[in-house]
Design a protein that fits this description.
With about 140 residues, the protein is of the alpha/beta class. It contains seven helices and five strands. A five-stranded parallel β-sheet has the order 3-2-1-4-5, with helices on both faces. Helix 1 packs across helix 2, helix 1 packs parallel to helix 3 and helix 3 packs antiparallel against helix 4.
Length: about 140
């Protein structure tokens, strides 16, 4: 299963984005995709602002129709996201990324489609061990 971050969803929607081709290729590779409700909201807002309301609505509808598994961020994930912020005080991980880390760990998902490096900085254990595998 492949977790999809906002940047990849957005790049796939925006033909003018420098990462558009890579995003389309990653999303079309036939893997089972998963994302969170937080990523949905962040992507919808970004798409509505930059590309228009109709594009944002089409994106949301594609998720509604099963393009990706939509995983809710639970209370336990929010608490884990808060702990990530305390553990990585030198980083400026967004709330959405921290919640994504938590959901990915809860689901056992280790691969992520993302264009930013936050998922490579975060470590799956507190000893500085393994990072998520980035798919670009």
């Amino acid at each position: 299963m492949l977790f999809v971050d906002t940047g990849v969803w957005y790049a796939a929607l925006d033909r003018g984005d420098v990462n558009h081709g890579r995003a389309v290729k990653v999303l079309g590779a036939g893997e089972r995709l998963v994302t969170t409700d937080y990523v949905l909201v962040e992507t919808w807002r970004l798409a509505a602002h930059r590309l228009g309301f109709d594009v944002a609505e089409r994106f949301w509808n594609s998720l509604r129709r099963g393009r990706a598994r939509l995983e809710a961020v639970l209370a336990v994930d929010r608490e884990a996201a808060w702990a990530v912020g305390r553990r990585y005080r030198d980083q400026r991980f967004s709330l959405v990324d921290r919640a994504s880390f938590a959901v990915m760990e809860r689901l056992g998902v280790r691969r992520v489609a993302a264009f930013d490096d936050d998922f490579a900085v975060y470590r799956l254990d507190s000893d500085g061990g393994e990072a998520f595998e980035l798919v670009r």
